[in-house]
UniProtKB/TrEMBL annotation:
Stored PANTHER family: CYTOCHROME P450, FAMILY 706, SUBFAMILY A, POLYPEPTIDE 4, OS08G0547900 PROTEIN
The keyword Transmembrane helix appears for this protein: yes
Top-level lineage group: Eukaryota
UniProt KW keywords: Heme, Iron, Membrane, Metal-binding, Monooxygenase, Oxidoreductase, Transmembrane, Transmembrane helix
Keyword Iron attached: yes
Membrane-spanning intervals of the chain: 15-33
Protein's name according to its UniProt entry: Cytochrome P450
Family the entry assigns: Belongs to the cytochrome P450 family.
Amino acid sequence: MLATPSTLLAHCPSSMALLFTIVAALAIFWFTWTYRKCKGKPRPSPPGPRGLPIVGILPFLRPDLHSYFADLARSYGPVVKLQLGSKLAFLVTSPTAAREVLKDQDIVFANRDVPTTVKVFSGGRDIVWNPYGPEWRMLRKVCVIKLLGNATLDKTYELRRREVRQTPWCRVQAGHLGNIRAFGNAQYFGFLPGAGPLDLQGVVKRMKKPMGKLYAIIDNIIEERLKESGSSSASAMEFKDFVQFLLQLKDEEDCKPPLTMNLIKDLLLDMVVGGSDTSSNTIEFTMAEIINKPEVMIKAQQELDEVVGKNNLVEESHIQKLPYLLAIMKESLRLHPVLPLLVPHCPSEPCTVGGYHIPKGSRVFINAWAIHRDPSIWENPLEFNPSRFLNSPWDFGGSGFGYFPFGSGRRNCAGIAMAERTVLHSVATLLHSFNWKVPHGNKLDLSEKFGIVMKLKNPLIAVPTPRLSDTTLYE
Ligand code: HEM
């Protein structure tokens, strides 16, 4: 009988051990070799448009940056490299690549590339621009849990209620802030090597006056609140507003690192800048889309009449019972996410997205606007159809990466709860109290104007007609 290898091995344990040792050694060698080969091999750079020397693609940027970036993604793919003067930037335009940035490598990308204007005015230590670390964590906790948590929002309801009742027309808060919008202007010259501090576009110069005014308002309110607290103990004081709340928190809590007066001012500025145009522009887009689709207005008003009644005014407590209205807000933010490219993220170390190399310190734009209009995710993506959000899994948490108007991950919007209350309560009040239409001879224009906060290109002009039976409610 011929001896086969198996019979040989079965009768010779030392040969079997030898064979196993050789196989194991070969396997370890193979794994180490392929691992080193992969690790050592530099990842390629993403494709992207060729620019000119020194300026890169700066001369070719269009004012509608979000749709220009969407066009680039259609030509080059979901991860695109852009040379913006001396700055290297990357566009991310697919749910998979967005997930890699905002979830899989959340901590690496939880940093910001601070623009010159911000460095000049606030030093970049506010919550929006603070680098990921203990100070940002402390501010985020104060902001999300204490300042904008449901308990504080309930206490400040009367302030919001007063504002909503006094403003039964569109463009609710826009305009009050004047030139603050210059913050959102692209500082193209700032991208040229060494040109940042020179302010060649005069943005810093134009911003000086309105920013000075805003800081003066904040200083005055703080001074007022401090005087009031001098007359009574902090904890015994009646709850007034965010300012008083922060001052109390500063005295009472043992925050680490400490919540200084300068950080309080920066936080208050964030609430004004981050919370006003975003919400008011969303209200304006929503009303424009509703007025453009009378069947949506009728359906929303039927829901409001059932829940609120026609002899009553809308309260914030009603909004949990208005699923169609919530679907309207979601659909409005799908088509018009007011921060279409989020706030750019910045990796703190070299990393890989979509198989491409992304260097440390680059600026990463995530095009939520383009993803929200992707026909492979959304049926008839350009149609305003709130019903698509009824009984759907998409929410404002952004975990699906096909829909994330408030961003996603640890650097997502800190004011979602407040935005939801403000936008829904305002839109509900406008729709419940009035019928709306565009003035005779006018055409509704839904075009967008890009800015860090996107807005309607032409302000919405609409005529309200009272619809409640009890006329005393309008007094
Ligand atoms: C409809 C209204 C709003 C929208 C669509 C919106 C959207 C966003 C988005 C997209 C981001 C950036 C997320 C990222 O970079 O990944 C953001 C950040 C932020 N938002 Fe909002 N926002 C709104 C209202 C508000 C309000 C009312 C407040 C506060 C009162 C607020 C405070 C902030 C802050 C502090 C950040 C920076 C968070 C951080 O970097 O840790 N936002 N928001």
